[in-house]
Amino acid sequence: MSFADPTVVVCAILAAIAGTVYFYYYSPLANQPDIHPLQLAQQSSVSKTRQSLRETATYRSKSTPDGTRLLSTLSDDMKTLRDAIRLGRSVSSPSAVQVIVEDAVQKVTSEEMVTRVSALSAGLLRLLGEAQIKSAAIYLEGSVEALVAYQACIEAGIVAIPISASESPANVSAILKHSKTRLLVTLSALAVKLGAAAVTSTCIKHVVLVGELDGSEASDAFRAAASVTHFRDLERGVGCEKDAVIEPADAAYVLYGSVDEGRAPRGVVITHANALAAITGIIASLPATQVLTKKDTFMSVASLANAINLNFINIALTYSCSICILETSDAEKFINQAYQLQPTFTFLDPLITRDLVQLFYSNVVKYPKLEYAMFMSGYRRAQDSLMHGIVPKFNFWDFSYFRHYRNVMGGKLRLMYIDGPTTPSKSIEWLRVMHGAKVIPLFGTTHTTALITAGSYYDYASAIDTHNVGAPVVCNEIKLVDAVDGVSLTAEDKPYSRGRIFVRGANVAVGLWNDKPLELKPGNWLELPYYGEIFPNGTIDVIGSTQWTTKSSLSPSGYLSAECLELALASSRAITDICIVSSPSSKTLDIVAHPRPMELFAEAQLCKKTYRMKEIEKVAWCAEYIRDKIIETARKSSEFRWVADLPVQSVRVRLVSAPFSAENNLALQDGTNNRVAAKKLFSSL
Fold first, then answer.
1. How many Cβ atoms are within 10 Å of 66's Cβ, its own excluded?
2. Which UniProt keywords apply (predicted)?
């Protein structure tokens, strides 16, 4: 045999191996779609034909077709939220662990949690006495005590009023004054921060403190302002001898949104029936094989006052899941704890979602050029797979890159819920590729228990190609009605119907706390302050809020949706956060942006320019560079290409040195942009 023969054989073997490796590892499209495409072609159905040309037909989930009743509970045994939580306790073993995260990890067994909740609920009832309306404000940071206090309120039939610990003392005082509650559960440090004056100006008679007050004058003043009881003392008491009577229509908790400057707070009453309907809507959107169990772990990174997050707290309690509480908007802190606690599902608000994407992307761009090119090649392949209904699995890119990032977050995360309307499509795509979890967009308002739509579990292209927020959930119906407030959006629009979003169903609240009831339209329809668009498959895109969708002479359509434009421009890799603040009469497009540090650093090195991030708003070339990137991004968008055609002087960019947050007043507590504060940045220009 000649020398060439073994060479040929070896080359043939190597070629065969290379072909096999490529097919199974390099080609994600070798896998089959997880579900047949036709099953995603119609995600909601028309339940009623349109009543007039001014509105669309009524849409509802395919799981509850026309002729069947909308679902409002998971079981006939669940008539109240207390029933659901008790059912969760009944299926958990006494040794089951609820993991609560603070500065250090604490582990509380289910048996210990039941004991603490029972004792505290009885203690709270003793403090409230014979009050006709029993309510308690929970003003705590994410902790064991916050979860115990919330469950104790539900157990005792006390209306819980959660308040975020990051709210300003002035806002907390305004909420307490409006709520007229007699009982406040808070942390000693927060009590001192709030101040005695804030208590004396309200109806607060009893304060339950977590921790000790010091000997300062502020602490002494606080003790004098109300009757102070220690949380631990109430927990040492005995449980209730008999159950409080609770009806489905009774209030379970009250949600106060961000307190607008100059306006009185508004608390939306969420009944037990409303809360159960929201739980049902989320659970019913999951395939039967993915239903949550006591083996699952929910990581909560938002406060109890966050309406969506509270829904998932309720779900975790109903299914006896372990719960990790880490109230933060810091993505690095989140992944550090996720690595240790290995959650299986989570909800991320807009602030932490943006921070998480930036954190991982800033790591990727540090790769050497060749490795970065390889990574992006794999990313594009995985992206292509998603758009074909395939989750990339068991391929080279997954093994060498993406699996590493999943393991950084514990490696077990399978469900990631996000706020659909405010999360850019590129961020959703990034999370799906990098973390391998099912990223499910949600949409709702405080008045709808924070839920009216949810993305399909298997629709991996949702919120990427059309930025839809899914179809109606099983507990409500949706329709669009022509806008009559000057914005030209109608049911007759082409190619898809557009208009004001209307909703009805068991998840829709009908009352306001200490205020007049919500005004419903004929047929029990609630008019939401949002415009929407319905796609042929029955999914919905949220165009924007009525407050920030205005007439505009700049736009060819005659109107401008600030939220829609932000989401389109946020796909630029040069931008971390962006806010559009133009008014209806404005002749300029005003943009506040926080540049992505690595992109700015790379441009500075390339062009040999200097800047200081702390003084970025004063560096002219940085603003010009970001404006060029914004225009470049707009040029790629079919809907907002007109931005690229505006004169340069009509696009004004103001840079800020830090990401948008509640601390710098550029983001509200729910993670959305604070446009009022952003607009003030242009007052000096």
1. 11
2. Ligase
| C-alpha dist (Å) from residue 174 to 198, 265, 668 | 9, 7, 17
Taking residue 42's Cβ as centre, other Cβ atoms within 10 Å add up to 14
- The sign of the CA dihedral 53, 59, 65, 71 is negative
For residue 94, whether the previous peptide bond is cis, meaning omega lies within 30 degrees of 0, is no
In Å, the largest CA–CA distance within the chain is: 102
Which residue, chain included where needed, has tokens 């772990």? Answer: 297
Enter the pTM of the model.
Answer: 0.90
Does pLDDT of 395 surpass 80?
no
Rounded distance between C-alpha atoms, residue 326 and residue 97, angstroms:
16
Residue 257, CA distances (Å) to 33, 145, 171, 216, 263 in order: 41, 22, 10, 33, 12
- Which pLDDT tens digit goes with each residue over 99-123? 887 667 788 988 899 999 999 999 9
End-to-end CA distance of the chain: 84
Q: What is d(CA 153, CA 253) in angstroms, rounded to the nearest whole number?
A: 9
Architecture of domain 81-325 in CATH?
Answer: 3-Layer(aba) Sandwich (3.40)
CATH (residue range 547-685): 3.30.300.30
Q: What does the domain layout of the chain look like in residue ranges?
A: 4-30, 81-325, 547-685
- Is residue 439 within 8 A of residue 470, CB to CB? The reply is no
